[in-house]
Amino acid sequence: MSKPENNVRQDVCGSTSHQNTEAYVQILGTGMDTQETSPSVLLFFNNERFIFNAGEGLQRFCAEHKIKLSQVDHICLTRVCSETAGGLPGLLLTLAGIQNGSPESTEHVDIWGPPNLDLLVNAMKNFVPHATMVKAHIIPRSDNVMVHGNGAALASSLHAEELQAEGKFKAVSISAILLTPTHLDGSHFSSNDTSIVYICNLHDIRGEFDPRKAKACGLKKRRKLGQLQNGISVKSDLLDIEVHPDDVIGPPIPGPIVLIVDCPTEPHAQELLSAQSLNAYYSDSQSNSQETTKVVNCIIHLSPATVVSSPVYEKWMRKFGSAQHIMARTTRKHETTPILESNVRIATRLHYLCPQLFPAPSLFSVQNDDVAAPNFKGSISKVCGISAENLLKFTLRPPRRLGLDRSSVQNRMTFSVFVKELLSEIPEIVDATKNISTFWHKPKEDEAELFTRQDSEVMTGDPSLAGHAAPRCLENVQRDPSYPRSFYHFLSSETKFSL
User: Fold this and answer.
1) How far apart are CA 107 and CA 461, in angstroms?
2) The 161-162 sheet, strands edge to edge
3) Contact assessment for residue 383 and residue 314, using Cβ atoms and an 8 Å cutoff
4) CA distance 7 to 231
5) Residue 166: which of 4, 359, 403 has the closest Cα?
6) Minimal CA–CA distance to 30: which of 305, 317, 306?
7) Are 281 and 324 in contact, with CB atoms under 8 Å apart?
8) What distance in Å separates the CA atoms of residue 291 and residue 249, rounded to the nearest whole number?
9) pTM of the full predicted structure?
10) Cβ atoms within 10 A of the Cβ of 113, count?
11) Helices 415-425 and 341-353 sit at what angle, rounded to 10 degrees?
12) How far apart are CA 72 and CA 49, in angstroms?
């Protein structure tokens, strides 16, 4: 697509509907409960959606929280690895199924990423139906090299590569900066270590129309007022002058700016600090005046906590003044709110039924339900950084609501909450739990007699088990010698409810 320079003009002098457009960035899963994937970030507009990173579990998380992925237009990867792209094949298969596999469909998904993205896309073509629905866009690497003070060669990005696609980017301009760190001996990391920083700059909103200025310019016809709002100069009705849009319309409101930053290692952080293409966004840059500095409103950090707490990364963060820093990969060691709530709900119910066989979810302690998730401490607190929460939003439009929005954040879930929910749905599970506990702690000398009696009751009470046939749900299941034999008979004969 051609560059969206016209879009800015349309936003400045076009319809006022842009002021009412809803836009926000939202955290989708802070690394999943396994901490093995990178968080995903949704950039939402009324008519366009961007997903940054698609780790494993993204679809399940979105389905659980009723977030529609069918309307995703762009998938932007900060790196090509299992952490950031593990869920991409499944996501593309889902999107292909939504299109009913129609090869005539004109809909497609644009995927953006570093130079090694083509390897992943080519591999997926073997199983993604109608591969034409995927358009891969490789962000080229900069060849500019500068020498750092310690003698190490750093590939400094002198400019940000703007993402372009036909008919897209109607509400935002997105640029990308590649970070390819080098070793102290000057040798480059492999291409697989390339990371990307995305700069999302929403288009400006046109200024307000001033009726008094229009009257002073001798304008009467409503049609001419509309032309001025569309950026077209007109002839005055009463005066012999030409009226320009700037004569009757106030200055535009700058669009909010969001940065998506992923620095997997400290060498990446050093490369980030030296990136000259970010100078225009630094509030402490001596080369920028107050008028030319682009104000960054929000920075979402996908970097691990070990990198974020480094002096180099902290120095870079301090360059943005009042920007809101959201730390999306801080540790969740003591977090009590699960990411995949349904998964933890099932595990908690099984643990309540038989704690000896089903361990408690590692997400929270059963003995202490009130362990609160700590705030991120250390150097980040000095620059107003906050730990991300699942479904946390930063509102970008309308301008009056600019800032953090926790209205969608999950309520705190504890073991007792899940148990109360279980007891309200299945009251009889209390008796079943007591019976299982009795069977489990039965003395070994009584086990043989108990097993014979229980086996007789099962055969009499359930004809389907005649001939010592095991239930289908227990076929091919081998008994652990450490568990009482009677326990397995109890599960096969007494557990008639569904968890």
Assistant:
1) 58
2) 161-162, 172-179, 195-202, 257-261, 298-301, 324-327, 385-387
3) yes
4) 12
5) 4
6) 305
7) no
8) 19
9) 0.72
10) 26
11) 70
12) 5
> How far is Cα 395 from Cα 298, in angstroms, rounded to an integer?
10
Which letter, b or e, does each residue of 42-59 get, where b requires 16 or more Cβ atoms within 10 Å of its Cβ?
Answer: bbbbeebbbbbbbbbbbb
Closest CA to 57 of 76, 32, 78: 32
* Main-chain phi, psi angles of 244, to 5 degrees: -100, 155
238: amino acid identity, one letter:
L
Token pair recorded at residue 322:
């009042």
Q: HSE (CB half, 13 Å, CA atoms) of 461?
A: 11
The two three-digit tokens of residue 496, written as one number: 């008639």
Find the largest Cα–Cα distance for the chain.
Answer: 111
The number of angstroms, rounded, from the C-alpha of 329 to the middle of its chain's C-alpha atoms is 11
pLDDT tens across the length of the chain (499 residues): 333 333 333 333 333 344 447 999 999 976 554 567 888 999 999 888 999 999 888 888 888 888 888 888 899 999 999 899 999 988 888 887 766 545 455 578 899 999 889 888 888 888 776 655 788 888 887 544 333 333 333 344 556 778 777 667 788 999 999 998 876 555 556 667 899 999 999 998 888 888 888 888 888 877 787 788 777 888 888 888 888 888 888 888 899 999 999 999 999 999 999 998 898 899 876 666 666 678 999 999 999 888 998 999 999 999 998 899 999 886 544 455 566 677 777 888 888 888 888 887 765 443 333 333 334 444 444 566 888 888 999 999 998 999 999 998 877 667 788 888 888 888 888 888 888 888 777 665 555 555 555 555 544 444 444 444 554 544 555 555 555 554 555 455 444 455 5
Task: Give the closest residue to 493 by CA, choosing from 448, 466, 457, 467.
Answer: 457
Q: Which candidate, 351, 478, 405, places its Cα nearest to that of 27?
A: 405
d(CA 196, CA 268): 10
Q: Contact, 27 vs 259, CB < 8 A?
A: no
Distances (CA, A) of 220 to 14, 207, 240, 302, 473: 20, 20, 14, 54, 81
In sequence order, what are the residues at sequence separation of 6 or more whose Cβ sits closer than 8 angstroms to the Cβ of residue 436?
Answer: 353, 354, 487, 490
